[in-house]
Amino acid sequence: WPFHAPYVKAINDLKKARNAVILAHNYQTPEIYHCVSDYIGDSLQLAKLASQSDADVIVQGGVYFMAETSKILNPEKTVLIPDAKAGCSLAASITAADIRALRREYPGVPIVAYVNTSAEVKAEVDICCTSSNAVKVVESLGVDRVIMVPDRFLAQNVAAQTKVKVIAWHGACEVHELFTAEEILGFKADHPGLKVIAHPECPREVVEVSDFSGSTAAMIDYVRNTKPARVMLVTECSMADNIAAETTGTQFVRPCNFCPHMKLITLPKILDALLQIREEVIVDPATAARAKRSVQRMIDLG
Ligand code: 13P
Ligand code: SF4
């Protein structure tokens, strides 16, 4: 990537000068993921890494809710998001007022929030979860009914793996909701031996026709460990680019769908963030303290 080289050098030099680290989600483009990030991972891994970092500055290669989670876990650090417009259709689908209304409608029923939510929503719920620990979180509550917000597909996919009754909110990921079972079966017919692995934000019928489902990190581990001859990652496009760069002998069958929010993060914007110390993520301290309880309760489950 010769075009990227000057940015990569400038960012890596500036990171040292600022005592900064870059946390990059698995959906970041290869030049961010492979060339400037200090830590890479799925949402759970990034949340844990954020809480362990001893840098003064965290630059979030990811979307706004991820940067907010880093700030919630590190109130004393400067957390930067290279583009504050990097949102998420799931986080946008529910508000703190919606959670309070759910409490009134279902008194006593614990509420589990996917980390793809705002700090205000995290502050109102009982515990957070990510796609890699959702079943464990739901079962840890020791009840026969939970409310899961905001992703209805994640809720359906969790419900299929537990006896706990799951009441779902109606949100969906604008990237994963586009996949259909018909499309997956078509790819399987066209590519004999194809292993299909799907993110649990996909509709239930897509997961049902897949060979494996897991968080972005679990999907990467599946490819690394099983080394399939042909694989299709039913998720955001950059995942396949990032793993293909380190994998030989596996053919990656596309297509995939782009997350327009993740793609707002670019090398020039990361450089600008480090140069100008912007956009700084600010979370009201009282909200952050309440939200931290929900995030930390999840992390403490191990
Ligand atoms: P993971 O926690 O699996 O990385 O998922 C985050 C996300 O936003 C997927 O769309
Ligand atoms: Fe949100 Fe979907 Fe983008 Fe993930 S891929 S950040 S869930 S819109």
Strand content: 15-25%
**Largest sheet: spatial strand order:** 2-1-3-4
The CATH class of the largest domain: Alpha Beta
Estimate percent helicity: 40-55%
What is the CA-CA span between the terminal residues?
38 Å
Inertia-based shape: globular
Oligomer: single chain
Task: Characterize this entry briefly.
With 302 residues, the protein is of the alpha/beta class.
Any descriptors?
302 residues; alpha/beta; Rossmann fold; 3 domains; 4-stranded parallel beta sheet; 14 helices; 12 strands; globular; binds 1,3-dihydroxyacetonephosphate; binds iron/sulfur cluster
Question: In terms of topology, how is this protein built?
Answer:
Layout: H1 5-18, E1 20-25, H2 30-35, E2 39-41, H3 43-52, E3 57-61, H4 64-73, E4 78-80, H5 96-105, E5 111-114, H6 119-124, E6 127-129, H7 134-140, E7 145-149, H8 152-159, E8 165-168, H9 181-190, E9 195-198, H10 204-208, E10 212-213, H11 216-226, E11 230-234, H12 237-244, E12 251-252, H13 267-276, H14 285-300
Parallel strand pairs: 1-2, 1-3, 3-4, 5-6, 5-7, 7-8, 9-10, 9-11, 11-12
The structure holds 1,3-dihydroxyacetonephosphate and iron/sulfur cluster.
Written overview of the protein:
This protein has helices at about 5-20, 30-35, 45-50, 65-75, 95-105, 120-125, 135-140, 150-160, 180-190, 205-210, 215-225, 235-245, 265-275, 285-300; strands at about 20-25, 40, 55-60, 80, 110-115, 125-130, 145-150, 165-170, 195-200, 210-215, 230-235, 250. It is of the alpha/beta class and about 300 residues long. It has 3 domains: about 1-85 and about 265-280, NadA-like (Rossmann fold, 3-Layer(aba) Sandwich), CATH 3.40.50; about 90-175, Rossmann fold (3-Layer(aba) Sandwich); about 175-260, 3-Layer(aba) Sandwich (Rossmann fold), CATH 3.40.50.10800. A 4-stranded parallel beta sheet has the order 2-1-3-4, sandwiched between helices. The longest helix is centred in the C-terminal third of the chain and has 16 residues, at about 285-300. It is globular. The model has no long low-confidence stretch (mean pLDDT about 95). The protein binds 1,3-dihydroxyacetonephosphate and iron/sulfur cluster. 1,3-dihydroxyacetonephosphate (13P) binds near residues 26, 42, 43, 116 and 215.
